[in-house]
Specification:
The protein is built from 9 helices and 8 strands. The protein is α/β, with parallel strands linked by helices. The longest helix has 19 residues. The chain starts with a strand and ends with a helix.
């Protein structure tokens, strides 16, 4: 798959693409990333990509024409149409199901806005999807773009050291959309705190039951709506319900 990223700061992506376990996806080309700077498509000696907003107000607005010309070049290099994603507070919150969809697709063009915003005419005529990381504002779309690329990359075969790792991630359908359970490693005692006995027992069935209960309890405490969704879809067993009732 291929992601073309339109950004005024392509240098921000260099360490991200070369660091961590997900770099395997980028180095092997499983997830190809091509960076485009709209300033290269701006006119005039100063290569302006922004201007003051009509109607007044603070900040600057990214101009439609440099972005549109940059997008045309990216689409031409891809060889055809592709989803055009803008990271925006108006977008739908990014969730695991959407990440799985992007991870199974052919990629997209990611538009990283800056300044006060982007000319609305570009959004209405060129953008096909809008994505938000949550109810807060960042200085630009680069961090959300990296978040999507990272989430997509780690789902590619062979990227993680253990392919089962992402199956046990929070929100994964394999865990019925619940949060993950607590994890422990050496030493067995750390600052007076031990490891739950069941994890030291070697009894795999009991360990799996404990982990299931911990996922349920953690989710009920922090994200009860996820437990409600699992219950509504019939994914909770009588044993699950008993575990929840015992902790009420």
């Amino acid at each position: 798959m291929r992601f073309d990223v339109i950004t005024l700061f392509p240098e921000l992506f260099a360490p991200f693409l070369a660091s961590g376990v997900t770099r395997r996806a980028f180095e092997t080309g499983q997830v190809e990333v091509v960076l485009w700077n709209p300033r290269d498509f701006a006119e005039g000696n100063y290569r302006r990509v922004d201007d003051r907003p009509f109607g007044g107000g603070p900040g600057m607005v990214m101009m439609a024409e440099p972005l549109s010309a940059c997008l045309d070049a990216a689409l031409a290099a891809r060889g055809g149409a592709a989803p055009v994603v803008l990271f925006s507070p108006a977008g739908e919150s990014l969730r695991h199901a959407a990440v799985e969809g992007w991870a199974a697709g052919e990629g997209a063009v990611l538009v990283c806005g800056r300044y006060e915003g982007i000319d609305q005419r570009f959004i209405e005529t060129r953008v096909t999807h809008q994505i938000s990381l949550g109810d807060f504002v960042l200085s630009g779309g680069e961090i959300p773009a990296m978040a999507l690329l990272d989430a997509v990359a780690r789902l590619q075969p062979g990227v993680l050291g253990d392919q089962a790792s992402h199956i046990e991630d929070s929100f994964n359908p394999a865990l019925d959309g619940l949060l993950d359970c607590p994890h422990y490693t050496r030493p067995e005692q750390w600052r007076g705190q031990g490891v739950p006995d069941v994890l030291m027992s070697g009894h795999h069935a009991q360990i799996e039951r404990w982990r299931r209960e911990q996922r349920l309890l953690a989710t009920q405490q922090s994200r009860p709506e996820l437990v409600d969704a699992a219950r509504a879809s019939g994914r909770l067993t009588p044993a699950d319900e008993n575990a929840l009732r015992k902790k009420l």
